[in-house]
Amino acid sequence: MCRNIKVLANFEPPATPDEVRASALQFVRKLSGTTKPSKANEEAFNAAVEEVTAVAHRLIDALVTNAPPRNREVEAKKARERAIRSGRPVARLGGGQRQSSLTRIAAASDRRRQCDATCATFGRRAPAVRRSGDT
Predict the structure, then answer these.
(1) Residues 6 or more apart from 96 whose CB is under 8 A from it?
(2) I need a surface site. Which of 77, 79, 96, 135 has the fewest CB within 10 A?
(3) What's the N-to-C CA distance of the chain in angstroms?
(4) Per-residue pLDDT for 32 more than 80?
(5) Taking the model in full, what pTM does it have?
(6) Distance between CA 57 and CA 20 in Å, rounded?
(7) Where are the domains positioned within the chain?
């Protein structure tokens, strides 16, 4: 539920109001345990989002650092590389482009080779591969 809460401090260009509000919304969703409040709780939920957004803006503006500002593209690339190394799927690339079919096939082939090697090490047969169209 909180995957959209990202580091927003020390970026060039600075975080946009929409990014800060999106993080505040995710934070309030996590605290409340709901993604969409009931009608009875909607007013309190929305007020909490606005308050957290205001506090987040004040925090980001008040932080002082000696580190050079981070670049969004570089940070996104590092995150994609970490995801690929850990075997998590990479849904989107920069600019809203989807991961190519060849990249997905290569990753699946790598995982299959690792599985085959592990099974061979422990003297087990690798599970059969189901292909689309097989019944």
Answers:
(1) none
(2) 135
(3) 36
(4) yes
(5) 0.57
(6) 7
(7) 1-70, 72-121
- Whole-number Å distance between alpha carbons of 51 and 57: 10
Nearest to 49 by CA among 16, 75, 20: 20
SS (H, E, C) 46-68: HHHHHHHHHHHHHHHHHCCCCCC
CB-CB contact of 90 with 39 (8 Å): no
Alpha carbon distance 21, 11 (integer Å)? 16
Q: Which two tokens stand for residue 72?
A: 């969004």
Structure tokens at 1: 């539920």
Query: Which residue reads 């934070």 in tokens?
Result: 27
Helices and strands: H and E segment counts in the chain: 4, 0
Residues for the chain: how many in total?
135
Angle between helices 17-32 and 42-62 (to 10 degrees): 130
Rounded Cα distance, 54 and 60, in Å: 10
How far apart CA 113 and CA 119 sit, in angstroms, is 10
Least confident of 24-33, 56-65, 77-86: 77-86
SS3 of residue 3 by DSSP: coil
